[in-house]
Design goal:
Blueprint lengths: L12 E5 L2 E3 L6 E3 L3 E6 L6 H17 L2 H12 L6 H10 L10 H15 L4 H19 L3 H19 L5 H15 L7 H25 L6 H24 L1 E3 L2 H24 L3 H23 L4 E3 L4 H22 L8 E2 L8 E2 L2
Antiparallel strand pairs: 1-4, 2-3, 5-6, 7-8
Helix pairs in contact: 1-2, 1-5, 1-10, 2-10, 2-11, 3-11, 4-5, 4-6, 5-6, 6-7, 6-8, 7-8, 8-9, 8-12, 9-10, 9-12, 10-11
């Protein structure tokens, strides 16, 4: 297993010996290269983890390439171990780091599956099935900060949709942020949590304004929707990204347009290949991941694909003040009203749940 070290798995309890040092970020402390004294396994087996291990091992065996299987597993379960630091750096330069983080986009696949299969039965069956699939998927991937945020938003939206209640997008963002911080207050300093909420806020608040400004009452095309969602997410994430990484991915929009349509097929093929031994599909999965790796490497190798820029917390605050002001102005110019109408539609954002 890619993320298994000496038989250690999720839910295990470890006794370590080493020098405890002051922490950083959302880590209160850390221990460098500790000695493992004892490992105790939980009495109740982690069935969700075993499913993930089985699928992951099968994908690695059938693709026989760390890069290809790493990309497929990062899409499917958010497992980035096989990609390595160099590949992750290329994804970051290309503005695609958010794609390999298990988040709302992955849950949207489960929600859309339930929608297509049970939309003609009843709202109750559809809602319960979607929530069950979301809980199963989250238990497999683990409750990371970004996945916790996505699960809270998705379940809340499904419940409000079922009961016919309407939430303003800003309230949905604030409620989900508050609830996730109640579960784990350390998320407030977690970079993945910050970027997850920033990108979701951009898609929920800024995307409909751009769509209304450029298209009026018409619905944007699939490619146009990807462009609008990418611009909105990147804009709201940009100050935090510059603060932490010190770079601006200038070709992020191009990368997202080229890669985003291939994510869902890669996830579906990865799941099938991980369960069934079908050589033809494994070969197709390798071709699709090869194409994506080529795109990422090509864009990351362009000298001007990213620019260095530094920003402190004061600069971040000023940047978000400008973004909020631009959002308010665009809302007035486009004459858009945030009518909370949460629908399970197939649109290219992270959660497939939007305000229309």
């Amino acid at each position: 297993m890619a993320d298994n070290i000496a038989g250690i798995s999720r839910s295990d309890r470890l006794i370590l010996r080493g020098k405890l040092q002051a922490g950083f970020g959302n880590y209160s402390a850390f221990m460098y290269c500790p000695e493992i004294i004892n490992v105790s396994h939980p009495s109740t087996p982690d069935l969700a983890l075993r499913v993930r291990e089985l699928v992951s091992n099968n994908i690695q065996t059938r693709l026989a390439s760390d890069d290809n299987s790493g990309l497929a597993l990062s899409y499917l379960f958010g497992q980035k171990t096989l990609l390595g630091e160099e590949r992750l750096a290329s994804l970051r330069i290309a503005g695609l780091a958010h794609i390999v983080v298990a988040s709302g986009y992955h849950l949207s696949v489960a929600v859309n599956f339930a929608k297509k299969r049970f939309r003609k039965t009843s709202r109750l069956v559809l809602m319960l099935t979607a929530i069950l699939l979301v809980l199963i998927y989250v238990s497999i991937t683990g409750f990371s900060s970004s996945m916790t945020r996505a699960a809270i938003v998705t379940v809340a939206s499904l419940l409000t949709w079922y009961f016919g209640r309407k939430l303003h997008p800003v309230r949905l963002i604030l409620y989900s942020a508050a609830f996730s911080l109640v579960l784990n207050p350390s998320y407030v300093t977690n970079l993945a949590w910050q970027l997850s909420f920033a990108s979701y806020s951009g898609i929920l608040l800024f995307s409909p304004l751009l769509a209304k400004f450029f298209y009026g009452e018409r619905r944007p095309s699939y490619i146009s929707s990807i462009i609008i969602a990418s611009i909105s997410a990147q804009l709201f994430c940009l100050p935090i990204s510059i603060l932490n990484f010190g770079t601006i991915p200038t070709l992020a929009l191009v990368s997202n347009i080229l890669i985003s349509p291939l994510v869902s097929p890669t996830m579906l093929l990865g799941l099938i290949v991980g369960i069934l031994d079908i050589s033809a599909l494994a070969g197709l999965l390798k071709v699709i991941t090869d194409i994506q790796l080529y795109i990422v490497n090509t864009i990351a190798s362009i000298p001007w694909s990213s620019h260095e820029l530094s920003l402190n917390w004061l600069g971040v605050a000023i940047a978000y003040a400008v973004i909020i002001l631009a959002t308010i102005i665009l809302k007035r110019v486009a004459k858009y009203s945030y009518k909370p109408c949460y629908a399970l539609e197939k649109i290219p954002d992270y959660d497939k749940i939007y305000a229309c």
